[in-house]
């Protein structure tokens, strides 16, 4: 099967741009400044203005230094991004300490840096920042200056209220962080899987382009080779048979003839008129897909039958790759036997792949087809390349659906056991070169 690239899960993430964090911090600086001015100047509430504005100014100076020293397009490493988000949590905690701790209604802004991490950084870094935010909230629940209020007796909320605020803040932090991380992670996985699909299609398009270049080269080289052959033939008559040069001329003539034969074969293989290579029956398609998977200790049986003449379609790379990947998974998880069956009638063509393995785990049966869903029940794959219905299955499903196919997945009914995958097309789609032309898939973005 076609090799697939490693996903970003194995590489350090560099998703956050420095400019993104700087802009968010400027937004925080503006909001904090406005809040302090409204409370102190607008409402006239006393608060430690000097230390509070010093913390705000510290964030502003940090932004200025970062903008001067680094380009805005710089993508931060996970450690650098985590360090900056940790500063944001500590800076916000410092302001909350000066202005009432968890009694301050702005205490929930401690969640913001953790949300940024959940959408862009790894789970480990997000847990680290979540732990830091929780520790800060715990300290602020106990140690803080009074909440800014009027000059009347000091405003104090019951301890039970502070405890409830702490529980609400920590619960919200955990829930929103997990939710944001899962949504962002699924988006990242889908983007990686689609990129891998694009690479598979680009590789097939490249092979098609090479096929066309071979045809062009055969036509271009045909004329000089014909000239060489003709010159060698005429020179052979100029020398006696005993002349040692006659042997060299004969060699040149025979090799030029061989080159002409090779070019003729290249031209015929690339010709659209050669139906032997461009079109194939369903039974031939199955043999083409199955052949690379024989000899792995699993018996693969094939049957093809139906009403009317056997359907004939184009030799399409997307179908061969998609079915090949499904078959590879079946072979990986089968105990001893895989059955491949093709059935057709006047309207539809269906190909079924059944194995005698453990089947699909019930809890993931509805999710199969999403990228990186890679669990079968009770047994691991024979090889690492199989992987078990993860990214490879997503690509196979995507390619097959682009050929107007529909996929149905289920476990075999007792007393049989194993998985059953059925791929169905309309007969018109299979037999129509317009639907089966590989060019349609390479240009699917248009």
TrEMBL record:
NCBIfam families: ActS_PrrB_HisK (NF033792). It catalyses: ATP + protein L-histidine = ADP + protein N-phospho-L-histidine. Keywords: ATP-binding, Cell membrane, Kinase, Membrane, Nucleotide-binding, Transferase, Transmembrane, Transmembrane helix. SUPFAM superfamilies: ATPase domain of HSP90 chaperone/DNA topoisomerase II/histidine kinase, Homodimeric domain of signal transducing histidine kinase. Its EC number is 2.7.13.3. It is found in: Cell membrane. It is an enzyme of class 2 (transferase). GO terms for molecular function: kinase activity. This is histidine kinase. InterPro entries: 2C_sensor_his_kinase, HATPase_C_sf, HATPase_dom, His_kinase_dom, HisK_dim/P_dom, HisK_dim/P_sf, RegB. It is a multi-pass membrane protein. It comes from Roseibium algae. PANTHER family: SENSOR PROTEIN CREC (PTHR44936), SENSOR PROTEIN RSTB (PTHR44936:SF10). The chain crosses the membrane at residues 21-43, 49-68, 129-147, 159-181. Residues 216-429 form the Histidine kinase domain.
């Amino acid at each position: 099967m076609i090799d697939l690239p490693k996903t970003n899960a194995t590489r350090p993430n560099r998703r956050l741009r420095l400019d993104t964090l700087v802009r968010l911090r400027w937004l925080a600086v503006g909001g904090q400044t406005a809040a302090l001015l409204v409370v102190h100047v607008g409402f006239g509430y006393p608060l430690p203005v000097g230390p509070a504005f010093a913390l705000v100014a510290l964030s502003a100076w940090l932004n200025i230094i970062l903008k001067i020293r680094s380009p805005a397009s710089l993508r931060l490493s996970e450690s650098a991004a985590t360090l900056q988000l940790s500063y944001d949590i500590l800076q916000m905690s410092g302001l909350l300490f000066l202005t009432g701790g968890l009694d301050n209604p702005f205490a929930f802004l401690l969640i913001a840096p953790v949300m940024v991490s959940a959408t862009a950084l790894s789970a480990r870094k997000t847990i680290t920042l979540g732990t830091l935010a929780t520790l800060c909230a715990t300290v602020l629940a106990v140690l803080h200056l009074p909440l800014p209020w009027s000059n009347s007796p000091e405003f104090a909320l019951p301890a039970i209220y502070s405890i409830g605020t702490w529980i609400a803040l920590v619960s919200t932090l955990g829930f929103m962080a997990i939710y944001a991380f899962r949504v962002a992670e699924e988006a990242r996985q889908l983007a990686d899987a689609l990129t891998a699909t694009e690479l598979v299609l680009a590789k097939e398009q490249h092979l098609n382009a090479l096929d066309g270049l071979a045809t062009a080269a055969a036509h271009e080289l045909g004329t000089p080779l014909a000239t060489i052959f003709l010159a060698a033939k005429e020179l052979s008559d100029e020398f006696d048979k005993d002349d040692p040069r006659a042997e060299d001329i004969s060699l040149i003539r025979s090799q030029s003839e061989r080159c002409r034969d090779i070019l003729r074969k290249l031209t015929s293989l690339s010709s659209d008129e050669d139906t032997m290579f461009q079109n194939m029956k369903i039974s031939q398609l199955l043999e083409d897909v199955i052949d690379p998977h024989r000899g792995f200790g699993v018996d693969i049986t094939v049957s093809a039958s139906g009403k009317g003449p056997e359907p004939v379609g184009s030799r399409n790379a997307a179908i061969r790759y998609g079915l090949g990947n499904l078959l590879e998974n079946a072979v990986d998880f089968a105990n001893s036997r895989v059955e491949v069956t093709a059935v057709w009638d006047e309207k539809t063509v269906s190909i079924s792949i059944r194995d005698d393995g453990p089947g699909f785990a019930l809890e993931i049966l509805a999710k199969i087809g999403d990228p990186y869903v890679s669990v079968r029940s009770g047994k691991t794959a024979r090889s690492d390349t199989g992987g078990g219905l993860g990214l490879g299955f997503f690509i196979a499903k995507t390619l097959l659906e682009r050929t107007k196919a529909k996929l149905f997945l289920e476990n075999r009914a007792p007393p049989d056991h194993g998985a059953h995958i059925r791929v169905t097309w309309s007969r018109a789609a299979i037999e129509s070169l317009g639907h089966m032309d590989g060019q349609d898939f390479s240009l699917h973005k248009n």
